[in-house]
User: Fold these one by one.
Assistant:
Number 1:
Amino acid sequence: MISLVGGVFTPFNYQFFTNGIIVATIAGGLCGLLGVFVVLRGMSYIGHGLSHAVFGGAAASAVMGINYFVGAGVWGIISGVLIGRIARRRLIGADAAIGVVTTASFALGLALLNRYGQAQKSIEAVLFGSVLGVKPIDILAVALVTVFTVVLILAFYRALLFATFDPEVAEVSGVRVAWVEALLMAMLSLTILVTMRVIGTLLISAMLVIPASTARMLTNSFARMLWISPLIGAATAGVGMYASYFLDTSASATIILTATAVFISVYALAGIRGRSRIAHVHHV
Amino acid sequence: MSPEVLVECAHISCAYDSAFVVHDVHFTVRKGDFVGIVGPSGSGKTTLLKAVLGAIRPQSGHVTMKPGLRMGYVPQVESVDWNFPVTVLEVMVMTRSKVGRRPRITAEERTAALEVLDRLGLGGLQDRHIRELSGGQQQRVFVARALFHKPELLILDEPTSGVDIRTRHEVLHLLADLHDDGVSIVLTTHDLNGLAAHLPRMVCLNREVIADGAPIDVLTSEVLEQTYGAPMEVLLHEGMPVVLDHGGTDVAKRVGTLL
């Protein structure tokens, strides 16, 4: 039953919820931003895959007693670069490269935790995160990575666009495509690293794909997509998180469902617009 | 005195996974050249273009370029993702990733891009999405992008592949105009009659150079059979060689469409 007792501001009386909504909104925006590159490169599975790879690194760092951020971060970046390199050789497709590298990494992490730690607990934490257990340091980490990502995208905007749209000509025109891809993978790995513990891999995967796909239907301009997608990501994450309090549902699930509802609405609207455009052409 | 050498591929050999795609090819591009490279699929045409561009390093031999040579490259339009969210102006400006990194298109960049678009008959289309253009306009956008840096040498990979006859004529006229304006051009094509035979110089390639010269000298039955491995007949029509494909004629006879 929906509980509305206490008014619309009640959730914000709880610090843990306020922290959760802040981190979810920033993470939604960040994933929405990077999701533009993920979706346009046809690598929608990368978020899911890289978060599995980072899980392997997290497990290995826990077993070896290394700091989580250092161990999982280095592991994630190496996995990302490895995926990029394998995909570039074109012996196998990018989807297969993601599948091989990340599942192997996940399996290794699982085996290490089976042998030395608590596998079940860790897997649940990775899948769903703990958005209501967010600490100020987590907010700071997500905010810092967001600022860092925005600065890098602004600084290398055209190289990123060129290498995404037309890697072959970009290479010939002097853009170091391999370097650009490594940069993108590093940004993705960093994002997953700081958001995995708080929002979980399921939400990361969804927020890397749904807002960007929605934005794609709303604009034909790459530049506009780069601000519409993070806006949708941040808004749906904030609204979904807020709604989850009243609906008494899982925060991750509610955020994904909110983003999906926006996607379906835009999809339906784009369909109507497309059909009316065709009808208009026929009447000319 | 011969015109200045822009690019010289001196006896180059290129291989992918130990299989030679181009073997001992000697190919020179001079200022003012308008060259068509023809050959069957897998004959090394695109590999030779990439060697000329400096995008791949040959296993043996060497490629020498004129110092500071400005080159423009037009890829096969079939390799373009037409659903990618970019406008014509964004396609033009993305090539300036070295000098201008930020998203904002400066007034100077916009003016320069619009000048090139106007010159290629694409005025007023700068804010259109690339998918909304006709086949000829799409091909011209990519030529415009390559021309944005005022190249001395324009390199095109299959510029008429997958386009209709009207678009092919448009492309051919556009390239002839650019050549008249002093741009040297190298292109690959499968289109012997529609494109290659109209160019001043043709290179027949099948891993190695079979023939290099004017179409009237190069387009012979012997050279074509050696290049394509299939019998072909060459007729002269108003002084221009026309290639007849015997394979096609045989099939037409079998299915009864030839009287």
Number 2:
Amino acid sequence: MKIKIFYFARLKETLKFSSEDLELPDDLDGLSLLKLKAHLANRSDVWRQMLMGKLKVRGAINHALVDDKALINDGDEVAFFPPVTGG
Amino acid sequence: MAVRIQTEDFNAGLEISQLSAKRRDIGALVSFVGLVRDLNDGDAVSQLTLEHYPGMTEKALEAIVSQAQQRWDIVDALIIHRVGVLQATEQIVLVAVTSAHRGQAFLACEFVMDSLKTEAPFWKKERTAAGERWLEAKASDDEARQRWNPS
């Protein structure tokens, strides 16, 4: 399946890019946000620190804030970012 | 009901008067304006950069307004939030709510701000003499939002 991922704020600066298109093996049955984080964390220590480190990371699927258990489907827009600080 | 994300400044007085124009059933208009403070955590702040998630930001703010409409008897609501580079003392956000009576408007306005602070995808980076730093989310903001949940 194919998904699009956006990164914001501190994450975007760490990676030096803000989005990517990702093709995932179809046998990832029931891909949760947590599973996706773990998959990305395997890329390098920088990724592991960024997504599974001490600093909190929030996730959204198709523009809705979700928790780690939320399931991702083909074509979804996923985003990772720090806790929000607007207002 | 309107939600606007913009880089340019806004005229709070004009926005507020437009919200109540042509209506005779509004007895209360409550507004909040957030400004860029020149001091944070003991450091002088010269500049603030606001990043957001286009698409999600609008949806999150519209969802907050519609929750406020369901909970309180409000006539209209407006949210304007700026993004981009802002200098100290500039306006960041305007929330305005109209209602027949003040109680509903006060509650709805505070609920919208508390929800915006914890649910709308904006991030602030401030510039101090020591360089730039991303602001950390505050536990007190989460607590402020929590108290609106039914216990």
Number 3:
Amino acid sequence: MRASRVDESRVKLIRAAQRGDHRAFCELVASYDAKIMSVILQILQNKEDAEDIYQEVFLKAWKNLPAFEFKSEFYTWLYRIAANTCFSYRTGKQRHHLENIPLDEGYHDVYEETSTERTDEQQQILSAVDDLPQKQKTVFVMRYYQGHKIKDIASLLGLNSGTVKRYLHRATHKLRKDMAAYA
Amino acid sequence: MSEEQLLQLFKEIKPTYKVNESWLEEQRAQLLGAIEVTGEHGLLQRLAEDIRIWWDELPYYWASARPALAMVSAVAVGVLVGRFVFTAPAPTGLLATGEEEAASELNLADLIRTGQVKGIDVGASGDPEAPVELNLTVGREMKLAGSTEREDILAALEYVLVKDPNPGQRLQSAKILGNTANLESKQSTVMALVSALLSDDNPGVRLSVIKSLTGVQSPLAKDALVKTVMEDENESVRRAAVENLAYFLNDLSVRSALLLVSRMDPIENVRFRAYQVLSQAPDNLSDESLDIQ
């Protein structure tokens, strides 16, 4: 009963936002942005990119909101926009990883990592993933961090399964090579 | 390593993140300002959909017993086509030549002061290195492009920041003005930013102004920031102002304001940041009177 009331109020918000209500849209954004950003950050671990991509993803959502037809969960629809934006995103020229940013440089820390500690080898693996080309990294993270099936990734990114497999193959091949170099 | 092993490995070591709520608040405020830039969303899609439906039904109008409707449709098509195919000749008078160079030669600041500029649209390239692009309505529509080194471009941006009814445009101007070289030495620009900080009703614009004022050490900026940390209704704006006051820690009034905020702001996050900024004050400035330690 409670869940359905929540859904109902959410549908009302979406419909209001579709009619052009900015406040309703921002209220919607506030319910999803933390979750969407934590997903995005797995792909782009970068403070400057995080700000750019936040604005890009939610502006795209705003522009395309009238096309949302309630055929999927609103979160899934936002996730699709976020994944596609990451897939075609060009990372900033100067990459500032959070750990390298002194406290005074930005207004806020964008995020904190909540994962458990890792061994050096595990850290090297993650660094190697971070160094993958953007498209390969997006597909790789969707598959191995976020656990999506290949056909779902293909559907979310508008690719065919063969292309997704090719990206994954290239990514794992490059990771093996990088890891061999570390060793 | 098999697929299953890879899945298992990354399940164990993948990074997970908790996004900072204050950062999200800032982004939401900026987004609210930015969506004004895009105008009414879906208008084009709805228009396209209406045209598609109308186009699909057109043959039936012609074939049916509704000749009047068909006639009206035909006239509408004619008007629409005419609107896009034929352009009106340039009106004579102010800026009649209509070339970019002509606009460049004008003293835009004078035009603004004398109220001859009817509107200015600021282009949003997103690249701080790119020239600023302005579409001016001065008798007719004009384009002007250049860097913020040019006084007329600066004057136009200041005008947009203070006067434009569209918060998205104001936000864009504030961002560009923030990238101006030697901003501190440009009094009128600093005044425009300060004025927007104190009077703009959009928190995204105020936030953008504060970012643009970062490092500007004029007394005007300092006083505006102090007023903002004490009075602004938006916590992200207050917090950003607190951050900027770190550049004025030598000033007693700033330290007093930060002390008050660190104790009395209703939002813990703002209080804590004020405390952090205040504790960056050099030891010799730890005021006995303020009792901050």
